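hiii so my PI (J.) wants the whole complex modelled not just the main chain, which honestly fair. so below is everything: two entries, each one labled with what it is. i double checked the lines twice but i was tired so who knows lol
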Amino acid sequence: MRFELTREFLDDLIEIINNEDSKKAFQILEELYAADIAEIYNELNIEQAKYLYLLIDDGEKAADVIAELDDDDRERFLAVLPSDVIAGKFIDHMDSDDAADVIADLPEKKQEEVLQHIKDLEQAGDIVDLLTYDEDTAGGIMAKEYIAVNIKMNLEEAITEIRKQAEELDEVFYVYVVNDDNILQGTLSLKRLLLSKTNRDIKDIHNSNVISVKADMSDEDAAVLADKYDLVALPVVDTIGRLIGLITYDDLVDVMREEAEKDYQMISGITEDVEHSDRVWVLTRARLPWLFIGLLGGIFGAQIIGIFEEVLAKHATMAFFIPLIAAMGGNVGVQSSSIVVQGLANKTLKSESIFKKILKELSVSLINAIVLSSLILLYNLVFSDSYALTFTVSSALFIIIIFASAFGTFVPLALNYLKIDPAMATGPFITTANDIIGLFIYLIIGVALFGIMN
Amino acid sequence: MRFELTREFLDDLIEIINNEDSKKAFQILEELYAADIAEIYNELNIEQAKYLYLLIDDGEKAADVIAELDDDDRERFLAVLPSDVIAGKFIDHMDSDDAADVIADLPEKKQEEVLQHIKDLEQAGDIVDLLTYDEDTAGGIMAKEYIAVNIKMNLEEAITEIRKQAEELDEVFYVYVVNDDNILQGTLSLKRLLLSKTNRDIKDIHNSNVISVKADMSDEDAAVLADKYDLVALPVVDTIGRLIGLITYDDLVDVMREEAEKDYQMISGITEDVEHSDRVWVLTRARLPWLFIGLLGGIFGAQIIGIFEEVLAKHATMAFFIPLIAAMGGNVGVQSSSIVVQGLANKTLKSESIFKKILKELSVSLINAIVLSSLILLYNLVFSDSYALTFTVSSALFIIIIFASAFGTFVPLALNYLKIDPAMATGPFITTANDIIGLFIYLIIGVALFGIMN
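here's the output for the full assembly
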């Protein structure tokens, strides 16, 4: 039943589309999940995609396909659809959070048009409400669809109410319990609902220990929280505790994945969020700035070496170890900074444990420094005939490892304190900085030791 | 209701434990979630943790605490508990998948002892079954707890059956439908269950389009699948389609997070999986090998430069740009390799699109190479008085960017083809290789151009 997108399948499908064989195309669409159809769209041109799309007669499925598309493809696709089709064909069938995401990406004029074409006024109202939240907050990823029952009900009344509300939902995982003022009181698990007698009161069988978040909490923090407590859904409340929405696991997983991808791209020296794009210039724009930092660093490095030109001309062997010194500073710096960034991202690094963390990092780097500078000392004692060079390389390497580790630990912590994304400090930035500083330390020590020992 | 672990809280708690004030300690435990208690354990010594643990009287909660502990802490903690306490206090109350994980980590002799102490023979049997699966497969993360009803039942019969089975479960999200041979036929959503009349037949109201996985599928692939189709649980079947287990969203999320963390650590030059440890030597062991690769690369680089000693002594300015050349090769290589690794991890990079990907990478690197080598050309035309140096740096940079990008794209693809983790090719390995190759290209070009132009 699982679908695998192959070249053959795609060739067949494109032929079917080109022949406008709507019966066959419809049959294929029937058998596929929305996520599969979205995957196929990525491989079609816009006219082919539009032809297929208009064949989908199941509103739910049509809505899901749109929700599953990459942002890029969605934008191009929506541009060719008229507002009334957008509203009628899928916004009406979408969960409010997905609908709000789709509408938020439209040009302002089209937003208004689409909103006016939505037949379900409650849905239109929900969307307008959701559009007011920042997209990086709990409010920005919550949906207005959830099931809530009053704490004064008994189970029989609650079940009637749940049935009524469930008609509008795709799936039911939790029932929330509220009081007359809509203030969240707890949850009613489906297990309890199935196992309890119908004459029991909700107030006696609900679980009052419910974890909720405020609408302005960052979506990242909400995802970390849901992950910690293994929650499949997270209710969102306003300042006085009224239930206003629900974040479901699929959106929480999306946030987690996006955060992980962003941190990964930062450490790779790629600006976040554009790698899904197909356009070469967009891809280039994502990488060039980081390489430019590297280039500037290299030019700066060249100038530093330039200061020491005379020494290098006299002792050309000093140049031999420049790549080693530069690489080691960079490698150690990336290790330390990435550890800090990961610790901050998954909240295992709390303010009180930061001091402990720094001490531990320093111990690790001390061991690394001792081992690695001893190894290079042995190597040079055997293969080099200059004691000055031998001791320069070893002592510089020792100092640089300690320094790069301290720098790599400190910078992301400082950025985090300044409310700047600490992941900024993991990629080319930290390696470039450590390259230059390492180079300087190496050359200074070299000048000193060659002066003394030769 | 959300818990924040503070220094004050911890100091108070430790005082309570030291005073053996069991009543107060019990009260605190009552108010906390299992995940919070596990978080506190990480900050306590083993005796304090044991004291607290034995106070928890709710078996479910005691089990959850153990399931939430870090592997490291759990191992140390289980070592101080006798086998009958392990079996009686929490294995009996755990879901079979968590129980199997805990038991798998015990020394072999203790495994047998604990298994013999489990009172619920069905649970013991499930655990023994689960222990046969590789821990990196769908079978290795599935649980034996799920709800299944026969397709021949009507809804009323099914509800009776569901009630019976639900008693043993923490939560219910899906009901699976099987035939007489236990072969998976579909799902029954809780929404359908709530909304349908009780005299309807399961065969008419179930959803036969169910996505399942085989037990030997990798856990990573299972997580990608669940994510693609937004599934909160994934049923696991054997070779002939019999339902044998269920993977729930919390385990799928764990797999996703672990994969992301592993790739992040690889690109940082840290061996996976040890960063949660507190021990300095374990942390050192995770990083030193990668630094050692960097050191070897540096020594190799020194030897390459050594070959060109004479040229460098004559034209010391050539040494100026060694750090730039080395850094740029590394940066470009990491960008390209990380893109490929991410594409492979989230399955957006399929075999048929690999050729397209390589072409796109080459276009991007061509633009980067043109821009960056032009910039350094301008810089050197202004600030350098040697045309030989100017053209050496620019042409070497151009070639190195193209080469590093191709190399960074190719190596992870090749590793993946050889069934080796492509993430190996993202961190120090790729930067070190590109450093050395870049250096060699630079010096060769330098020798040629200085020979021709001077």
